[in-house]
Amino acid sequence: MLLPALASPSSKIALRFPERELTYEQLAREARAVAHGLVGKRRVAVWAHVRPETCVVVVGALLAGVPVVPLNPKIGERELAHVLADSEPDLVIDDELPSGPAVDLPEPDGEAPALIVYTSGTTGPPKGVVLPRRALAANLDALADAWAWTGDDVVVHGLPLFHVHGLVVGVIGPLRRGGTVHHLGSFSVAKAAAALRDGGTMMFGVPTMYHRVAAEPEHAAAFGRARLLVSGSAALPASVHERIERLTGQRVVERYGMTETLMNTSVRADGDRRPGTVGVPLAGVELRVVRDGAADEPGEIEVRGPNLFSGYLNRPDATREAVRDGWFRTGDLAVVEPDGYVRIVGRRATDLIKSGGYKIGAGEIENALLEHPAVAEVAVTGEPDDDLGERVVAWVVARGEPVAPEVLSDHVARLLSPHKRPRVVRYVDALPRNEMGKVLKRELR
Ligand code: MCA
Ligand code: AMP
């Protein structure tokens, strides 16, 4: 059973949002009503606003065994059209929650799809990652083992609910344990500190959030009280790790995951929290580093285990490309230290950008920008950013008079998503290209 705490629900708080909290009894009642309204649907989408209703719908869909596509509430028009055309939901749920006459809700098979989460690639529009129930259950239990995570834990976070980090690890995770989610509504250091003072035991965040924690020392004591501060979705700079330790007396626990694989490795709660490492493979996860070169050089991480997705929706070609003999090729480059700790050192594709913990494909932004009448040519790169890890930079050859940078970044926000907008626009007379006409992005950086 994926969510045992809902089978015999208690009066304990399951979900705590700024506007409302729900006990397990309330959540079970409301989610069952949704489930009854969803029985028989092939697939649904939900506008994943940060509010308890999003969790009620997701839990209802899990009870009904109906796969759900969480939609970024700020998604742009082009990306939304793609996601809807690709996933073909029977229903898009927003303010009005479905309901229906009570029926039995048998537990679906472990291979049944639970969620379809869209993730960017180097080129083309995002792909739908089909996550079966088995992956959710196995991975959340492996995390519980690594973090000594129980129903007594209160997980504090301010993450979006349309990605794996906030939704799977941050909501379904605590619910599987019978514990509590304390969602901040949106992230701020002050709100996170207040929640930790008010009973929070763990915080989940992306490195940008920890960078901001380190910049507001007046709240340090609250973070020092947490049982675990967990960081993931991008590399936590060693400088931030060390600063947080100095300020709070706590060392951040890093874990490494991916939409397609859920979590692969983590530093264990009782393990050595070494800066710059993502710990050891989780229970049940096999990890190998495949090198082209010498044994001491970094290689590509491949993983295998019950945590893996079932495939990309409507993209058997992409699935075959990514999974060979059950091993998923992550594209992340790493070395493994003698004691098994994994150290991620880079990424195979230069056209993938991680900004604020969001994965962004250079190709999709280039395509969007090329549709703007003031853009003749464009190349998109990621460049180091203290706060966001990387920031999206657009190198533009103007057609006619150059337009203000905001015009182009708003254009991308409107078509794709605000988090994909270029933070910097640099006008150039020409893009460096090789004899084949391919842009030499390394020369731009
Ligand atoms: C800004 N905004 C706009 C525009 N510019 N809206 C429309 N048009 C524009 N031109 C809005 C934004 O939508 C946002 O609204 C607000 O203004 C601030 O902009 P933003 O740049 O997004 O804020 P930020 O301060 O840069 O955000 C930092 C952040 C955020 C809070 C750390 O990047 C974040 O939430 N990151 C989490 C990403 C994540 O969960 N990744 C997990 C992927 P509003 O504030 O209302 O949104 S899963 C994964 O990677 C794997 C599985 C793993 O290992 O976890
Ligand atoms: P996504 O496609 O949004 O699921 O992002 C997955 C990618 O995030 C991985 O392939 C890694 O490149 C990156 N990532 C996640 N966690 C970490 C981490 N702790 N350290 C470094 N990179 C990470």
Structural description of this entry:
- The chain has a domain at 356-443: GMP Synthetase, Chain A, domain 3, CATH 3.30.300.
- It contains 13 helices and 25 strands.
- It has helices at residues 24-38, 52-64, 77-87, 133-147, 164-177, 189-197, 207-214, 220-224, 238-248, 316-322, 362-370, 405-415, 441-444; strands at residues 13-16, 21-23, 44-47, 68-71, 91-93, 113-119, 127-132, 154-157, 180-183, 202-205, 228-231, 253-258, 262-266, 280-281, 286-290, 299-304, 311-312, 323-324, 327-336, 342-347, 352-355, 358-361, 375-385, 389-398, 424-427.
- It has a nine-stranded mixed beta sheet with strand order 2-1-9-8-10-11-12-13-14, with helices on both faces. Strands 15, 16, 18, 19 and 20 form a five-stranded antiparallel beta sheet that branches. The protein has a three-stranded parallel beta sheet with strand order 4-3-5, sandwiched between helices.
- Strand 23 and strand 24 form a beta hairpin.
- The radius of gyration is 22 Å and the shape is globular.
- Adenosine monophosphate binds next to strand 12, strand 19 and strand 20.
